[in-house]
Amino acid sequence: MMLYGTSLLFKAIHSVPSEKTPLWEFRVVLIEAINEQDAQEKAEKIGKKSEHSYEAQKGDIVTWKFIQVESISVIESEHLKNGTEVFSQFLSDSTVKSLLAPFDD
To answer: What is the pTM of this model?
Structure first.
């Protein structure tokens, strides 16, 4: 078995339409699998199982929907310990600017 860092994308879907830009979640999950295809399948199951809904403060229903496995990376280290890299991704300048921008309330 090998360890993989998998990134999952989720989208918040509101029952009441809004003018606001949708909120997304980027989640990194550790997967133990025999190969990349097995890691993909396990990550998809985790993503689908993580979908949930709740009532927001304003009374509408928010559903966190699993969208896709965004990427899969082999974790090269055989032993996880403090400082072990579990996920890395190259980003464009526009992506970094977006990540650093505060959320509008």
So the answer is: 0.84
